[in-house]
Amino acid sequence: MFGYVVRRLIAGVMVLIVVSMSVFALFFYGPNDPAYQYCPETRCTPAKLEQIHHSMGLDRPAPAQYLDYMSGYVKSRTITNGGISVECSWPCLGVSFKYRVSVRDYLMARVPATLAVAFGGATIFLVLGVGIGIIAARRRGTTSDKAIISASLFVDAMPSYLLFLLSWLYFVQRLGWFPDTGYYSPFVDGPVKFVDGMLLPWLIIGIASASYYARFSRGSMIEVMGEDYVRTARAKGVGEGKIIMRHALRAAIVPVVTIFGLDFAGLLTGTIFVEKIFGIQGLGLAGLDAERRVDLPMVSACVLIAAALIVVANIVVDVLYSVIDPRVRLT
């Protein structure tokens, strides 16, 4: 397994290098000139624009600029953008065009909110979805099974952003059940206010995603329940609950882990609709705001962070295969 993990890590680093090159080329040699962010249109003379190009290092060869851009990931440095010098601690992700602060410090302040959304929402949709899937599989063909499948299809047919918006309008604005939605630090504001602010976003994320997990878990459980070792255990008189938890679920959960790893990485990169509707200042909202303001360092940092999380999630999922299912061997 060790050799497999090392090879996957090397491949993941290569993927991130390719992504970083693409991001660098897109945002620093694309249609938008970064220097214009520091040069007002009404006062942007050619001499001033050239001076900004020089201060930002845009007049240097492209390989030198890329190496300088990537050096921030291994050391601290001082960045001068538009005549403003900012100390950028390791890992330095650049300086925001809009806020003139370190991108790393700006994004790190939003990480706790994103982690809260991701862990809470993922826990609910995984437990709820797999649990409902098991119930439907055990009652295959019955009225309850058909009702579960119909309800999950109904939820899936509704766009997630519409579900988030309707829940906010109804439960927050009309009924007032969750008046203080948003992220509150459990260490500063207390755990009660933290849970009260995040409960509705967690529930809506869980319900929106649990329907898909329920159908996927149901299909996987039905397939596993027909295997020879499950029928043998049942013939030996093993209890149904023990068969489900110790034999069937362990094999059926393997394909679920694949989609869960990617979905969880997606939550960590920021849930834009949830953060926007419920006023949660997370990474998704930071990336959306940066894209709207053409804040190139902020956008490029968000893209690289998202790529890194997805690569790591894929590696972790592959390793978990061998832990969950002993039949899987990583070579």
From TrEMBL:
<dbReference type="InterPro" id="IPR000515">
    <property type="entry name" value="MetI-like"/>
</dbReference>
<feature type="transmembrane region" description="Helical">
    <location>
        <begin position="298"/>
        <end position="321"/>
    </location>
</feature>
<keyword id="KW-1003">Cell membrane</keyword>
<protein>
    <submittedName>
        <fullName>ABC transporter permease</fullName>
    </submittedName>
</protein>
<feature type="domain" description="ABC transmembrane type-1">
    <location>
        <begin position="111"/>
        <end position="321"/>
    </location>
</feature>
<feature type="transmembrane region" description="Helical">
    <location>
        <begin position="191"/>
        <end position="214"/>
    </location>
</feature>
<dbReference type="Pfam" id="PF00528">
    <property type="entry name" value="BPD_transp_1"/>
</dbReference>
<dbReference type="GO" id="GO:0055085">
    <property type="term" value="P:transmembrane transport"/>
</dbReference>
<dbReference type="InterPro" id="IPR045621">
    <property type="entry name" value="BPD_transp_1_N"/>
</dbReference>
<comment type="similarity">
    <text>Belongs to the binding-protein-dependent transport system permease family.</text>
</comment>
<feature type="transmembrane region" description="Helical">
    <location>
        <begin position="9"/>
        <end position="29"/>
    </location>
</feature>
<feature type="transmembrane region" description="Helical">
    <location>
        <begin position="113"/>
        <end position="136"/>
    </location>
</feature>
<dbReference type="InterPro" id="IPR035906">
    <property type="entry name" value="MetI-like_sf"/>
</dbReference>
<dbReference type="GO" id="GO:0005886">
    <property type="term" value="C:plasma membrane"/>
</dbReference>
<feature type="transmembrane region" description="Helical">
    <location>
        <begin position="148"/>
        <end position="171"/>
    </location>
</feature>
<keyword id="KW-0472">Membrane</keyword>
<keyword id="KW-0813">Transport</keyword>
<keyword id="KW-0812">Transmembrane</keyword>
<keyword id="KW-1133">Transmembrane helix</keyword>
<dbReference type="Pfam" id="PF19300">
    <property type="entry name" value="BPD_transp_1_N"/>
</dbReference>
<feature type="transmembrane region" description="Helical">
    <location>
        <begin position="252"/>
        <end position="278"/>
    </location>
</feature>
